[in-house]
Amino acid sequence: MPIDVAADVIANQPLSADYNVLALAAPAIAAASAPGQFVMIKANAPALNDPLLRRPFSVFEILRGADGTRTGISILSKRIGVSTQLLYDARPGQRMACLGPLGRPFTIVEPPTEAWIVAGGVGLAPFATLAEHLRARGVHSTLFYGARRAADLFYLDFFRALDVELVLTTEDGSAGERGRVVAPLDRRLSSRSPTAPVMIYACGPERMLAATAQTAMKYGRPCQVSVERIMGCGLGGCYSCVVPMRGDDGGAHHVRSCLAGPVLAGDQILWD
Asked: 229-259, pLDDT tens digit by residue?
């Protein structure tokens, strides 16, 4: 069951002019969270009930005390509207409504399967905790991470410390390979033995997810995608987050990504 708490802001770290990492004291949510799950957060403007609804954010990090006890969570946010502006401007001690953990998490593989993680922009958010779990299981991980420019590539040292191999791309060529992140993924898959097991994990813009899922299907590889949808409640009541899926009969049906996802099988989503 999700837990509804009033979470105090512990810290707010700006990463750039648009991105920040917000740390919240939410030990009960942290204790119950698994990689790929999300929370619904509401930060009201002073003296106003604006915005009215909570907004979904992937659990980015699990915060721990000196004894290893889970003490809170962090979220990675990009400033694009009223809600994310309030999160960007939040100060320590400010209290926010936080509901979670919600949704279906990633299925975590075991060796000898390798994990190939594909992240675009703020789609990096669910992968910090995933990388920690993969390393704890001894799984070799590669992060294919794409952004518009070098300044939008974050937490690289964090992933390096977990022995994650980094494959970087930027649209302007200021870091890594110039172009889209799916290109090096395709090349790596094309040179990989079909008998060598790989699980692909992806989160990012819809077009990137579609391209990643289609590339995985081309090479017969499984792919778990974390979809991004507008959500009004996070509990399945508002039906604002539906995703078209392929049914067993070949026809289409819709699932609520807050309940069936946000992690879904890439080859079952109807991308067109």
From this structure: 988 888 888 888 999 999 877 788 899 999 9
| pLDDT score for 89 | 94
Residues of the chain with CATH 2.40.30.10: 3-102
Closest CA to 207 of 127, 149, 115, 269: 269
Q: Which residue ranges does the chain devote to CATH 3.40.50.80?
A: 114-268
Q: Which CATH architecture has domain 3-102?
A: Beta Barrel (2.40)
Q: Return d(Cα 125, Cα 228) in angstroms, integer.
A: 11
Q: Cα–Cα distance between 158 and 96 in angstroms, integer?
A: 27
CA distances from 93 to 2, 11, 32, 90, 234 (A): 23, 9, 23, 9, 25
Distance CA 80, CA 103 (A): 23
Write down the pTM of the prediction: 0.94
A 10 A CB-CB count for 267 gives 16
In this structure, are residues 123 and 228 in contact, taking their beta carbons and an 8 Å threshold? yes
- Domain 114-268 is found in CATH 3.40.50.80: yes
